[in-house]
Amino acid sequence: MCGIAGFIVKKGTPGADRALADLVLSIEHRGPDGRGSLIQENGEWIVGLAHTRLAILDLSDAGRQPMAGSRPGDWIVYNGEVYNFQELRSELEGEGCRFDSRTDTEVILKGIEAKGTDFVHRLRGMFAFACLEQDRRKLVLTRDPLGIKPLYYYRTPDCLVFASEVRSLLATGWVPRRIGRRGLQSFLEYGSVQAPATILEDVYSLLPGEVLEAGFAGNQLVYRDTKQRTFFAPPAEQPHADRAECASEVRRVLDESVRMHLISDVPVGVFLSGGIDSSAIVGLASRHSTRVKTFAVIFEEQEFNERTHAKCIADLYSTDHHEIALSEHGLLDLLPKAIASMDQPTADGVNTYVISQAVRNAGIKVALSGLGGDELFAGYGSFRRAMKTRSLHYIPAPIRKAAAAAGKTFLNGSVARSKFWRLVENGGDAYQACRSSRQMFGEDEIGDGGIDFGKWSRDEVLHGLRGW
Q1: Mean pLDDT along residues 258-263
Q2: Which of 66, 172, 322, 440 qualifies as a cystine partner to 38, CB 3.0-4.6 A?
Q3: Given a cut of 90, is residue 146 above it in pLDDT?
Q4: Which structural domain range is residue 432 located in?
């Protein structure tokens, strides 16, 4: 992951002289392989761009950012990887474009110069970037259609600040340090902050596929928000496919995705838990790489230990396998650093930190994982529960609401039961069933942003966090 940041403010804004340096320092941990910045004046406005680099493609200085375009005043700062950049580069070269590096960054910049911002719709990958067009006096922020790479911003008529991390925005001194009510409620409900809200008031996450354009031609910034077309085309009408045909197509798409993700000028590893998703990725990666490096976290408690399954897959595909032993004391020792590394509060970030640190210590910059497989293929128990609860819909609404009211009053007493009565009240709606299963606490428990833990025991709370 690289880090990007920048701003547009009026001349004379307090702190403008040091804001860019502070932004670079705030994101330097995201890019240990290089840093760069650019500050320019345009009329009554000051524009700053900052970048710290994690070099994956073209490790030479030709990949340094901010990167200048062919037209004077065109610049880009970019975080991510575009997997079809070689194909796009060949197309642009055929139309007369010349390149000075082997990076996907330059392909994005030259593509936008040649074909306009619609070129972004051609990109397949994970990315967030800011593209400055000085002659048109505008800055364009955009994010990939799946929302893999983060990008946050704070905006007023006189100020735009953006960065790869929420806390980086605070480094400028221009963003108020206020907890956002919507973000706090989201965290208490789901254990994470759901976009576009963030944990800070008036700071927002750019949504997946969203484009934010800031024009600075007048005496105030003019914003235009648009939604990208995604690379997911609407399904065309076609004959019914049987199970075997569907399985074959899923395998083809997964194989293509893994192959493209392995394009790198540095070694690539794979997180291996022994589950279906990560095991499938290891198997597919082994078709395109001679010796895959795999990493698995091993626990002392057998209840959580997946060592046997992970080792079985590693042996099957003859991977260069690394086991990361984690004890209770070891986790407690790592906890302060893991929490400090979280940009926003989350209930599920410590495990990612642990394995990512081990992979980085092994000299690996890039790793594939099965993250998202359960969401795409309905692997969580909440999906099965949603199917089972559909019959509640046939109970008349007045009866359901009366039963839920009575249950909450007389038959409650735990997080799990509270979730159940909310589900009864909602009538087994599939969306509400999944939502309730994921929730840590409901709106009635959260109230004005405070949780009363006194009515539940520690074990009941922990059980509720795991779902009912």
Answers
A1: 88
A2: 66
A3: no
A4: 381-465
